[in-house]
Write a structure and sequence with these properties.
- The protein is mainly alpha-helical.
- The protein has helices spanning 10-19, 24-39, 47-63, 116-128, 130-143; strands at 76-78, 81-83.
- The chain contains 5 helices and 2 strands.
- Helix 3 (47-63) runs parallel beside helix 5 (130-143).
- The chain starts with 9 loop residues before the first helix and ends with a helix.
């Protein structure tokens, strides 16, 4: 059964519309890439992969102190109250990189021992995404 709403590039363009208010530059670049793929009759990338790339991009933007965007513009209404976007760190907790005990050694209490599984996941992400590793290094230097 083929449902038009989930065929071809349609879900990808829906994703672009959803992220455009958060990062118009990322959405624009992604849209251009999809248009090119569609014109060349290439396969659509996985929406899951696009979501992962966007999450990485967003995390890096949050880690960068040079970001000039007014983050309050991204607040949303949930249950009639103003809520800021949730920032999920590489460790899985909801905080900024500069607040993470896994990334910033000076935040670790005496005797703190990292969870090996979480540390391994962080290390794998940093090895896989060079730009993410650069962003984390920058935050680590600022913290020291």
């Amino acid at each position: 059964m083929e449902i038009p709403d989930v065929q071809g590039f349609r879900p990808h363009y829906d994703f672009i519309r959803a992220i455009k208010p958060i990062s118009s530059s990322f959405a624009g670049a992604l849209e251009v890439d999809l248009i090119r793929k569609e014109r060349k009759d290439e396969n659509a990338p996985s929406v899951i992969d696009l979501i992962e790339e966007f999450k990485e991009h967003y995390r890096m933007q949050q880690a960068s102190p040079t970001t000039t965007a007014n983050h309050s513009a991204f607040a949303t209404l949930q249950n009639d109250s103003l809520v800021s976007p949730i920032k999920t760190c590489l460790c899985g907790e909801e905080h900024l990189f500069r607040e993470c005990q896994y990334l910033i050694e000076s935040l670790r209490p005496h005797g703190w021992v990292p969870d090996k599984k979480i540390q391994q996941q962080i290390d794998e992400k940093l090895m896989r995404y060079e730009r993410l590793a650069v962003a984390v290094e920058k935050v680590q230097k600022e913290a020291s």
